[in-house]
Amino acid sequence: MGLLDIYLQKNGKKRYDVFKETGMSQQMLGSVNKKSISSYSVKTIQAIAKTVEKSEGTVLEDLVQLEKENAYFEAFNVDDLLLAFKNKETHIVIKGEYKKEIEEFAGGQLSEMETLGFQLGSAGIVAILAEATFQLASLFSSKDADQKKIENQIRSYKIKRINENELLLYLRQLDY
């Protein structure tokens, strides 16, 4: 989970904003994003605080609280979702109007039982044929590159409805 990305997102910022505001390298921010709060340096906390226009103490308290809550990455649009996939987030909450688009895509997915039935009935050949068909359809699709990336990545996630306004995507491998 990218705690730094989640915190910045909740404050309307991205790692690039921290880089622009403070000059802290994006490579450094990327490595910090993978660590726990206890390993953040004072320089990192100061850079985040400057970017979100809060005191260092407030930023640290907020980050510790987020870490305790085990917060999920929230996606409100295509860019947020692509960032979550890039960061390999294990759990993603889809919110707002974008939820409707994801629900439409989810409607076309087979349930776990249906998939298992096909795979067992065909000795696994259906999985290979389905992947080949998906890749071929994607190759000739007129959809834009971002939509293709989303369709490809979202296949690794299960989709669960949380409530009327939110969907939870979580990695399929977490169930095993």
Measured distance between first and last alpha carbons: 19 Å
Tell me the overall shape: elongated
Uncertain segments of ≥5 residues (pLDDT<50)?
none
Q: What is the arithmetic mean of pLDDT? A: 80
Within the largest sheet, what's the order of strands? 1-2-4-3
Q: Briefly note the structural class of the backbone.
A: alpha+beta
Query: N-to-C SSE series?
Result: HHHHHEHEHHHHEE
What does this structure look like?
With 176 residues, the chain is of the alpha+beta class. It has 2 domains: 3-69, Orthogonal Bundle (434 Repressor (Amino-terminal Domain)), CATH 1.10.260; 73-175, no CATH class. It has 10 helices and 4 strands. It has helices at residues 3-10, 15-22, 26-33, 42-52, 56-69, 78-86, 98-107, 112-121, 125-140, 145-154, and strands at residues 73-75, 91-95, 157-163, 166-171. The chain has a 4-stranded mixed sheet with strand order 1-2-4-3. Helix 1 (3-10) packs across helix 5. It is elongated. The chain starts with a helix and ends in a 5-residue tail after the last strand. The mean pLDDT is 80.
Features:
176 residues, 10 helices
What is the topology?
Layout (H helix, E strand, L loop, with lengths): L2 H8 L4 H8 L3 H8 L8 H11 L3 H14 L3 E3 L2 H9 L4 E5 L2 H10 L4 H10 L3 H16 L4 H10 L2 E7 L2 E6 L5
Parallel strand pairs: 1-2
Antiparallel strand pairs: 2-4, 3-4
What is the gist of this entry?
This protein folds into two domains: 3-69, Orthogonal Bundle (434 Repressor (Amino-terminal Domain)), CATH 1.10.260; 73-175, no CATH class. It has helices at 3-10, 15-22, 26-33, 42-52, 56-69, 78-86, 98-107, 112-121, 125-140, 145-154; strands at residues 73-75, 91-95, 157-163, 166-171.
